[in-house]
Inositol-tetrakisphosphate 1-kinase
Amino acid sequence: MTEVGRRFCVGYALMPKKRRSFIRDSLVRLAESRGIDLVRIDTDRPLVDQGAFDCVLHKLYGADWRRQLENFKVVNPNAVILDSLDAIERLHNRISMLQVVSELKIENHDESFGIPEQIAIYDKEKLSDRRAWEALKFPVIAKPLVADGSAKSHKMALVFKHDALNKVKPPIVLQEFVNHGGVIFKVYVAGQHVKCVKRKSLPDVSEEKLDSVEGLLSFSQVSNLTNHDRVDEKYYQMMQLDDTEMPPLSFVTDIAKGLRHAMKLNLFNFDVMRDSRNRNRYLIVDINYFPGFAKMPGYEKILTDFFSDIMRMKDRELVKAWFENDASEPPAFDKRQVNNCENDSRNVVMLTCISNGDGGG
């Protein structure tokens, strides 16, 4: 383990809004009590000049930041970077984001999973060609192709008719809307630690409603769908989150583990819906890097446990012993990456997506 009295330093580089929501006093205090210091990285100064952080936690992009991380890795080859920019960028495209789901093989569960039917529309010409999207069943959700966390990338609409597609602006993704009882499950992942919470979502769309609604509604307008349906007590009973059954934790944890391996990312969440047509069928509709963890109850403990895992595994000899003994204890580094680091001092030890526990949050 780490030397007696030695503290583990996590430098964080976050935009102001993200910093305010994530770096709360409650998280800082709990981490300090576990020997972990969270230190703000000054984005106006070169990263390499700010100390030998044991771990760099970041959500910044761009060529300059990439160069800074590369320079830091050369000087600090044993540092852990959370996470690789190349791996993160896969989630900035809503098509490549979900392609990874089809690569997963999750066995020994009664439940199944997948993604909704979707296509990418890159220009108006394809948008006007009905053959390009004739396989999609309406309604569909129109989402910007780019998912970079900007306000523009969150502008989505529920489209009810073919003719309304002329109101959307490519490049976009058209994703088939599936009735899911008005509840979405958000699965937060921090290394081996997984926690699933439920949130209210878009209301179901009946065949009658589909016939009566014209055009499209932005997500900010979707609530209007139910403004004149207050007497529909059955719908509002479905919207009671306390009555909504959670998906099996072992099932979502296995999906989380598969996504970590496939994406080589450690900090993300994914949104899951239960298909109303088949209660054992779940659809993954979105994956987000380094989401709003503070919205998750008890996030301080989960993130501190995650940092503690890194701290324990950072000792190379311990990592080596972990593989030699084939232990079933907490997460470790990918053996190939450890070997690479031992063979080439220029390579940074990158935390990968390996876990042998059930990861229950």
